[in-house]
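User: Study the chain.
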Amino acid sequence: MEIITYREEFRQEMTELWRVCGLLVRGLNYEKEIDLKTKDQKDMIVLGIENGRVIASTMIGFDGRRGWLNYVAVHPEFRSIGIGGMILKHAEEILKNMGCPKVNLLVRKSNSGVVEFYEKEGFEINDVICMHKKL
């Protein structure tokens, strides 16, 4: 697998990967989220490419204090062979190079099956309540 920075030609395939992985939630405008991220930070989306096909992704955020990983996805056909760990390590290196001391990610309750994977990758469960407000 080759890990690359986002390229517009992969937008539809990346979004389809998110759908297949159950990451698309009704009510969110994913196209707008991609547009906002790629406007100034397209290098903060990384894709795993195998034979010209998007098989993994993550969207990286850094607010100057904490890093965030969003849309961490590995196509079901390519799970349990190390791809997820590779894409996480790549994202973590980007954040480390920016001086980021800690990375966070959110897991939806409907996707709790991935928690064990993240724990094996060194993530810990925090006792927090996540809140949001649409603007």
The beta strands are 2-5, 45-50, 53-62, 67-74, 103-105. The radius of gyration is 14 Å. The chain has a mean pLDDT of 94.
